[in-house]
Amino acid sequence: MRHRRRIRTVEHLTDAPPRRGLVVFLNGTSSSGKSSIAAELLRMLDEPYFHMPVDAFHAMRSGTPVPPDRLDAVLHRTWRGYHRAVAGMAAAGNNVVVDHVLSAEWRLEDCLSLLVPEDVVFVGVHCAVDELERRERARGDRPAGLAARQVRQVHAHGVYDIECDTGVRDAHECARQIKDFLPARPTPTAFQRLRARI
């Protein structure tokens, strides 16, 4: 009897009306404050959201050593899988906060090809280079100068729906800025404009 009741509950859930999830896509260099903003967003947004940071996908990999000549291929497959996981979650109707570093042009192009452009809020997360370097030193878990090397490419596309600067505002203020933007976000979105350009 219990088993039948459980089956009915699952069948009932599959009858839920279809919907697409909203993707709040945070793009910025390493140490720019994306994860801190994402944590604040999850606390303040009115609907359930999943935080999907790219670092979490790299952390899922086993500790098996990767030969240097295969490392680029392994990383490339990880990023491609991450993009498809985000797209899958959104397609299933889940709201997602993405925490990514678009430090290679193909990553943005891959995301543009996979995500529904009108359902993406593209957020540029900025921070002055000297502050990025200070944060790297304080963290001690990033190669020196990594963020400075990423800055130019990460924001090279030059188009966002909204931008914030974590050197000027703290994570809570940036998250509040993003939350306040969501109800009246304009169209075409940044992803729509970028897809049309590419």
Automatic annotation (TrEMBL):
Family annotation (InterPro entries): CPT, P-loop_NTPase
Binding site for ATP: 28-35
Pfam families: CPT
A molecular function (GO) term: transferase activity
Keywords: Transferase
Active-site residues per Swiss-Prot or TrEMBL entry: 55
Protein name per its UniProtKB record: Chloramphenicol phosphotransferase
Originating organism: Streptomyces cadmiisoli
